[in-house]
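quick one if you have a minute, typing this from the bus. below you get a single protein, a line of residues and a line of whole numbers that encode the local backbone shape. could you go over both lines and see whether the tokens make sense for that sequence. anything you notice is useful, everything is just below.
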Amino acid sequence: MPEIPEIETVRYHLETKTKGKIIERVTVNRERSLNMPVRDFADLVTGQQIMNIRRRAKQIIIGLANEHSLVAHFMLEGYVRMFYYGEELIGRPSVLFSLNSGEELAFFKLNLGYIHLVPTTRLDAIPELAGLGPEPLDEGFTLDKFFELLAGRKGMIKPLLMDQEFIAGIGNVYSNETLFGSRIMPVRKVTQLADAERIKLYHCMRDILTKATQLGGVYEEKFASDDMLTGGFEQYLQVAYRTGQPCYVCGHLIETRKVAGRNAFYCPVCQK
């Protein structure tokens, strides 16, 4: 599932390629991806100018001129691809937006994901975004704020980092990478973490997310035929999906185990 760096990369591409353009036509091949009948959706979206593109946690918010917003969540397999004028549309998108520039914005594999159309309002008032925790890269997410969030927590650290009500936007990949960078085992209880470890965890989390965002995350699906950014962080992964390969630090083989139902990748030597 895409996380902050991947969704922020999508936001950047959408901001660069679609802002100011008008949606001329909507084609829906998977009605269940929407939160309203196709006709109502098309009536509200067709002819609308794209005013802004935002990100909240793992979701993209596309603001339209009629004070409605498209809230897109890719979940496990979804992705968006832009086809330029003259390019052949490849595949069968769940939802397709044809723009007045001749380009087509195709959302694929929204089998678990969705595109919901909602009235534009404060982000925290949009039902799809309710209950989310703070953004770990926001200026207001200080070390003191992180310590406050950890106070009273008793569970294992890896599932806590992935809890969207605790911190928004981190999933399996970056929880693994953050814990390796902090030299903390995924199964460690929060109550066992010393203050020095909590400080290191905070800085590693922000540093890794920042670098991954700058390099385009680890998304495999390119946004467009000329996309040279997406997926640039994959070569920098230290433990995620490297089971059986040597640790770059100590040479011991990376291991994996189930932690709260998700795969935890770690180095049993470097992490304690």
Summary: Helices lie at 4-18, 38-45, 143-150, 157-161, 172-182, 195-214. The first helix runs from residue 4 to 18.
